């Protein structure tokens, strides 16, 4: 039994109490009744509940579901620690009405994220622990250390701005202070022909939108629509159902080609864990591999016994292997909640990968990939995170800042970091997935590469 099936079998953390008779002149103070079960297993009901998130292009004038969730979390913390007077009975009536009108998952979602994280650490099935990214931690695999080191380089010394933009940026810097932070060492000498061409005007549009969202206090859905998703598109290109054109000729005259292994991003705010449509934890974006040719055929063979190849039954991802998941929050809000969501989400992904491997012959079975990358986005700030697997325990490593949309330089850092992570997906994750999960032998790989070669 995994953690998600187990959660479904846990009873309510806060069973209803029989109504108490009202007493007009009761003078003594009483505590709000606490749950009869105090174990971490009972608290874990909170981890399979969250209001449905939806991507909106603008505020619709109604209450933001994420704001409501934050208010409920605050209410839960207040109820847990604040004595209440029963005097008129009004508070007990309101509590009873809320309990009867609210599902168990709604009630448990009022627990603070810190308590849910604490419960995850000691969960009976597949616990999740959160720890700081630190290269000296012996639990941190060498491959993850290398990734963090590379991402750190983009913040300090390595070039991350396409060289074809150098002249335009130099010209703008003479009249616009926003470009004063650029210096020659930031520009790449050679451009990657397999990445989308960047338009400085488009980058400025997203930058201005980020300023608007921050200054005017826009909702998370607006940040996702106007800022976060456009940044993914700038870095990786748009979602397309068919193979991209092999060549294109942008204004700089450099020839662009579609990489034979395509990594794209997708908004997935309504994606749910398999068999947990009601209240399962969600993420906002996923990076996935777009299988083609023989790879797509192998995926379809796998889908004959596993309809959805990921840990979610979100239809657009039914045949596209997820390699990274990202959760977004408003500026300065919900960081621990994002950790809960990513931890539970990627724990399910690890379980699926392990189950797929365990179904194979022991003589040909490969080991797990060293880590699964993730992102936590808080308003302007983008941070790299990752999970690793140790037995049944998932370790969430957080966080390494990779850039911010509050500066133009920061936007280029994010774009370059996303492209670097996507390259890891092409060069490391996908070859492992083909061999370990799709069980493609050397002959299959040779045929696939021949088909994909331009």
UniProtKB/TrEMBL annotation:
Residues 1-114 are annotated as: Disordered. The lineage of its organism: Eukaryota, Fungi, Dikarya, Ascomycota, Pezizomycotina. InterPro entries: PDDEXK_12. Residues 172-430 form the PD-(D/E)XK nuclease-like domain. Coiled coil: none annotated. It comes from Anthostomella pinea. Residues 97-114 have a biased composition (Low complexity). Pfam families: PDDEXK_12. This is Uu.00g133500.m01.CDS01. Residues 55-83 have a biased composition (Basic and acidic residues). Residues 27-52 have a biased composition (Polar residues).
């Amino acid at each position: 039994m995994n953690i998600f099936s187990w959660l479904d079998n846990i009873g309510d953390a806060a069973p209803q109490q029989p109504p108490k008779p009202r007493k007009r002149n009761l003078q003594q103070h009483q505590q709000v009744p606490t749950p009869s079960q105090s174990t971490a297993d009972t608290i874990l009901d909170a981890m399979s509940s969250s209001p449905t998130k939806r991507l909106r292009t603008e505020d619709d004038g109604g209450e933001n579901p994420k704001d409501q969730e934050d208010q409920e979390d605050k209410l839960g913390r207040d109820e847990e620690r604040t004595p209440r007077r029963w005097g008129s009975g009004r508070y007990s009536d309101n509590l009873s009405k809320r309990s009867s009108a609210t599902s168990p998952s709604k009630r448990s979602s009022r627990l603070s994220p810190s308590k849910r994280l604490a419960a995850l650490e000691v969960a009976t099935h597949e616990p999740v622990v959160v720890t700081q990214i630190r290269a000296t931690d012996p639990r941190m695999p060498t491959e993850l250390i290398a990734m963090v080191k590379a991402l750190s380089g983009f913040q300090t010394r390595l070039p991350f701005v396409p060289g074809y933009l150098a002249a335009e940026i130099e010209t703008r810097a003479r009249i616009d202070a926003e470009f004063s932070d650029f210096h020659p060492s930031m520009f790449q000498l050679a451009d990657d022909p397999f990445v989308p061409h960047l338009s400085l005007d488009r980058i400025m549009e997203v930058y201005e939108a980020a300023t608007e969202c921050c200054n005017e206090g826009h909702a998370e859905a607006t940040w996702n629509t106007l800022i976060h998703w456009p940044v993914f598109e700038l870095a990786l290109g748009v979602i397309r159902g068919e193979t991209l054109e092999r060549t294109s000729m942008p204004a700089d005259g450099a020839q662009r080609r579609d990489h034979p292994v395509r990594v794209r991003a997708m908004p997935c705010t309504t994606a749910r864990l398999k068999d947990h449509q009601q209240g399962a934890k969600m993420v906002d974006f996923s990076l996935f591999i777009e299988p083609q040719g023989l790879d797509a055929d192998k995926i379809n063979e796998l889908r004959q016994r596993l309809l959805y190849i990921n840990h979610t039954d979100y239809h657009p991802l039914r045949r596209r292997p997820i390699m990274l998941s990202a959760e977004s929050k408003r500026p300065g809000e919900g960081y621990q909640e994002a950790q809960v969501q990513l931890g539970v989400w990627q724990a399910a992904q690890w379980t699926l990968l392990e189950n797929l491997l365990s179904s194979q012959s022991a003589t040909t079975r490969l080991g797990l990939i060293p880590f699964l990358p993730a992102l936590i986005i808080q308003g302007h700030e983008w941070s790299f995170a990752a999970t690793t697997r140790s037995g049944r325990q998932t370790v969430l490593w957080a966080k390494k800042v990779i850039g911010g949309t509050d500066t133009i330089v920061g936007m280029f850092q994010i774009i370059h970091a996303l492209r670097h992570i996507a390259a890891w997906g092409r060069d490391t994750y996908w070859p492992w997935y083909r061999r370990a999960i799709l069980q493609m032998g050397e002959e299959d790989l040779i045929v696939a590469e021949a088909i994909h070669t331009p």
